Amino acid sequence: MSNSELDLVEIFKKHPFTKDISFGVVDVHSHVIEDIETVKKRIQRALEVLRPEQLWIDPDCGLKTRTTEEAIAKLKTLVKATKEIRENLK
C-alpha cells in the first residue's frame, strides 16, 4: 500500500471492506527508512475506513531485497509507529 499512495483507502471509502486486511505501511522497494510520523500517518489513513481490529500492520511486501540493516530499521519504525497509534486508541 505504501508505494501506491494508499490508493485502496479511497476504494474502501466507496466500497466498505469487512474482512481483516494486511496493510503495508513501509515501502520495501526503497532504501529510504521512513520516519515514524510518516508511518503513523499511513496507519491513521487506514483507520479512516477500517476498524483497528481488522487492520494488520506490515511492510508492503517482503524485505528480501533490502539489506539486513535496512530491513531491521524499517521494521523497528513500523513497530514503534504501531505501538504509538495503539496507545492513542485506548
Structure description:
This protein has 90 residues and is mainly alpha-helical. It has one domain. 47% of the residues lie in helices and 9% in strands. It contains 3 helices and 2 strands, in the order αβαβα. The protein has helices at residues 7-14, 36-47, 68-89, and strands at residues 21-24, 55-58. Strands 1-2 form a two-stranded parallel ribbon. β1 (21-24), α2 and β2 form a beta-alpha-beta unit. It is globular and about 35 Å long. The model has no long low-confidence stretch (mean pLDDT 91).
Main features:
single chain; 90 residues; mainly alpha; 2 strands; 47% helix; 9% strand; globular
Q: Secondary-structure map with pairings?
A:
Layout: H1 7-14, E1 21-24, H2 36-47, E2 55-58, H3 68-89
Parallel strand pairs: 1-2
